[in-house]
Amino acid sequence: MPIRIVQSKQNSRLKQLRRALVQPPRQSRRNSAEEPILVGIEGPNLVAEAVRASLHFACVFVAQGYERIVEELAIAPETEILLVTKDLLDSALTTEAPQPVAALVEPPDWTWKHLGNHRTALVVVLAGLQDPGNLGAILRSAEAFGASGVVSLPGTVSAWNPKAVRASAGSVFRLPLLAVDVDECFLEMRETGIRILATTTSGAEPADLVNLAAPVALVIGNEGNGVPLDIAARADGAITIPCPGPVESLNAAVAASVLLYEAARQRSAHSAPLTLRGGAA
User: Fold this and answer.
1) In terms of pLDDT, which residue wins out, 27 or 127?
2) Rounded to whole angstroms, how far apart are CA atoms 194 and 188?
3) Range of the structural domain that residue 26 is part of
4) CA–CA distance, 234 with 217 (Å, rounded to integer)
5) Domain-located, residue 62
6) Are residues 204 and 241 in the same domain?
7) Minimal CB count within 10 Å: which of 30, 157, 176, 244?
8) How far apart are CA 277 and CA 228, in angstroms?
9) To 5 degrees, how large is the angle CA 151–CA 126–CA 105?
10) Beta bridge partners of residue 218, listed in sequence order
11) Structure pTM?
């Protein structure tokens, strides 16, 4: 594959990479007439995950001396490859220990149809989630426990924030993810018969007593304040995780993971036994 050497910080592609990492887009859907939306990813593992997910690469950046990594990643031969010094690449990246490979990719253009059969829907709705690490962990758990997809409401951090992408371990490339407003979210759920349950710390049905084998959307709120009151008021009910220990609440990602596991457990009880593959990582 052709490799072009770049020696200036003013290179337009490097500027795109910096911008994509510092100001990640929240929305990946676009009109056909618009320019493609690009997101920045960093590190050979994430680049490899993007390749496996068949994402379109606009450009790949590799530090001098690390060309072998790109050769091993099975990137399409027509992809633009820029060879830069390590210092130059580091200046465009946002991590404390920058890696020698990065890329600009087009995120998947998901629609409601990608969430699949609404009769078996298991959707996570993020309402004001602010920590990108939590968001990425939720995406990973959602994919692990068979969720149909994730819906991100206004006020939620971008799923393409570099920390969220890393925490997702590649799930952000594969799991249907929609960024929509509240009205569109509730309208779609109502029309398809998906029950909407707001999570709370008390005063709600315990998760093990709620029918999570039916079509359901689980609303996960802000780390400090929970689900916004106006959104909780529009939900069909509320769900909680009983905690016998002396804690007031669980981390948002942990709570989502527990509920997703319970949903997977209940659904497996209606078919084959739940098989756990792997473990905590």
Assistant:
1) 127
2) 8
3) 3-106
4) 13
5) yes
6) yes
7) 244
8) 35
9) 55
10) 124, 197
11) 0.91
Question: Is residue 168 situated within a structural domain?
Answer: yes
The domain that holds 70 is classified in CATH as: 3.30.1330.30
Position 137 pLDDT exceeds 60: yes
Same domain, yes or no: 120 and 79: no
Residue 6 is predicted with a pLDDT of: 86
Q: How far is CA 79 from the centre of its chain?
A: 25
Amino acid residing at 7:
Q
Same-domain status, 135 and 241? yes
Which residues, in sequence order, are CB contacts of 192 under 8 Å at separation 6+? Answer: 118, 121, 215
Distance CA 277, CA 64 (A): 38
Cα dihedral 236, 248, 229, 208, rounded to 10, equals -10
Q: Specify whether 56 is located in the same domain as 101.
A: yes
Contact 39, 117 (CB under 8 A): no
Q: Are residues 100 and 117 in the same domain?
A: no
The string of pLDDT tens digits covering residues 32-72 is: 556 789 999 999 999 999 999 999 999 999 999 999 988 89
Structural domains of the chain, count = 2
Residues 132 and 263 in one domain: yes
Query: Does residue 219 share a domain with residue 190?
Result: yes
C-alpha–C-alpha distance, residues 30 and 36, integer Å: 7
Determine what percent of the chain is predicted with pLDDT higher than 90: 76
